[in-house]
Amino acid sequence: MCGTRRHFERRALEDLARALKIHDKVIFHGWQEDLSRYYADADVLLMTSQYEGWGMAAADAIYAGIPVVMTDVGLAGELVQNGKNGIIVPVGDIEATVNALAAISADPKRFIPRQLLARESFGSYLSRYREALYRCRHV
């Protein structure tokens, strides 16, 4: 797990992993500037934010061809093509999150074409973003 810079948050997550008896299955890497080596080993990115503006980690994962399970916040609908390059779940819906992860892990071959689609969809999003910035500059 990569993420927090706040020591108290990491400690709380480590304590939770111990309480759930999964501490031997979870590695806490802390804050990482370069996630590329983690994406290379990842099967899925799980992003369960209650709020998220841009969602750069999700955008990076999609570009790397990693399917994303993300809560329906911020730009989730712009980044994740639900059922194609990932799955969008409601905030706080643990059952939907578990089902999404299970759906992705149940048929890994299904994600080979999705990985290609993920790169295409991010490229398309980036093009639309550039166009919007250009229009704003010339208003």
Account of the 3D structure:
The chain has 139 residues and is mainly alpha-helical. The protein has two domains: 1-33, no CATH class; 43-137, 3-Layer(aba) Sandwich (Rossmann fold). It has six helices and three strands, in the order ααβαβαβαα. The chain has a three-stranded parallel sheet, with helices on both faces. The longest helix is centred in the last third of the chain and has 27 residues, at 111-137. The chain is globular, with a radius of gyration of 16 Å. The protein starts with 6 loop residues before the first helix and ends with a helix.
The level of helicity is 40-55%
User: What would the average pLDDT be, to the nearest integer?
Assistant: 82
Stretches where pLDDT falls below 50 for ≥5 residues? none
Count of all domains: 2
Helix-strand layout with pairing:
Blueprint lengths: L6 H13 L16 H6 L3 E3 L8 H8 L4 E4 L4 H4 L6 E4 L4 H13 L4 H27 L2
Parallel strand pairs: 1-2, 2-3
Keywords:
single chain; 139 residues; Rossmann fold
Task: Give a concise summary.
The chain has 139 residues and is mainly alpha-helical.
